[in-house]
Amino acid sequence: MKTNVVVSSIAAFIILAFFSFAAAFLFGVRKGASAPADRAREECSGALSGRPLVDQRYVELRESRTASADGEVVSWNIVIRKFDGFDIWVLLDGIDPGLDGGGNRIYVEVGDEERTFRTQPSRSGKISFYREFAYGSVTDAWPERGAERMLVDYPVRGRSRIVQADGKHSLFGRDTHSGKMMHAVDVSAGIGAVVVAVRDGLVVHAVDGYPDAGCYLPELKARSNTVVVLHDDGTEAVYGHLMQGSIGVDAGSRVRAGESIARVGNSGMSSQPHLHLQVGGLTEHGYRTIPLGFQGCGSGSFLPRLGEVSCE
Asked: Of the candidates 20, 187, 269, 297, which lies 20 to 30 Å from 226 by C-alpha distance?
C-alpha cells in the first residue's frame, strides 16, 4: 500500500512538472510573440537605422484632374521604369480605377525606356493596385521537356541543414514559404559558410552592407544582403540573408555554377544564420518559384528534403 502511494505521488509530481513546463513554455512563446514592438525595434536599432541601400521605386503615379459637368474627375498616369541598370519584369494587378481601354492588369518588361499607362477617369480621386517586380520571368509552359524539377548545384559548401523546402519546414521552424514561395529553400549553416552559384548566369543585383543582426522584423525584409543572378533561360536565382562584407561578385559580372559568390549570414528578416534560395521569376499571375533538385555534392542528384547535407 505504501509503495502504491509513493508511485502515485511520483506520477503526480511528473504530471504536474510536465504541465508546469508546458505552461511556462507556452506563456514564454506567447509573451515573446506579444512583446512590445518598440522593445524589439530598440534591440534591432542598428539594423533599422539609415536608408535602404537601393532605391527600388519603379512605379510613379502622376495625377491628372479634369473638370466635367458632374464635377472634377481624376485620371492617373502610371509610369514604370527600371531602377538599377537592368531590365525588370513588372506586374500591377487589380488596378482601380481600371485602365483606359479596358482591363486592370499590367504585365510588362521594362528596359531603357519608361512605360506609361493611363487609367480611366474617376471621381474618387484614389487609385489602388497590387505590385510585384523581378529580374527573371517564368512562362506558364514550364517545366520544359516534361521535367518535374530544375536540377541545380547545391548552394552551400560544408555541413548544412535544409530546414524549409517544397512547403515543408523543420519542427521548430517558421512556415514562411507558402503560396508563391512554396519551392524556395532555406539552408541553415554556420555563419560564414561558403555560398556558391547554383547555375551559370549574369549578376543583376548585389547588395552588401546590412548587419547580421538576427532580427525577425517585417521592416527588415528589404534589408537583406542579396545577390540575384539572371539565367540564360530567363529565370532568376535569389540568394538572401548573406553575411555583411562577404559578397564577392558585382552586378554585371558573369558567374558559373559552383563558383563562390558570398557567405551564409543573418541579415535582413532572419532569426538564425541561413541562406534563402529561390529560383523562379514573375508571371502574369504573380511570382512563381520552381521546384528544385540538387547536384554537385559527389553523390548524384537528390531532392531538397529536410535534414543534414554534407557538400565539400
From this structure: 297
Where in the chain is CATH 2.70.70.10? 144-311
Handedness of CA 32, 38, 43, 47 (dihedral sign): positive
CATH code for the domain defined by 59-134 = 2.60.40
Q: Categorize the per-residue pLDDT at 299 as very low, low, confident or very high, splitting at 50, 70 and 90.
A: confident
Which residue bears the cell 534591440?
Answer: 43
Residue 6's pLDDT is: 45
Could you tell me the end-to-end alpha-carbon distance of the chain, in angstroms, rounded to an integer? 63
Distances from the Cα of 241 to the Cα of 147, 177, 245, angstroms? 30, 15, 12
Give tens-digit pLDDT for 115-141: 999 999 998 889 999 999 999 999 765
> Contact, 251 vs 206, CB < 8 A?
yes
Residues 162, 251, 107: CA angle, nearest 5 degrees? 80
Residue keyed to cell 548587419: 211
* Domain at 144-311, CATH class: mainly beta
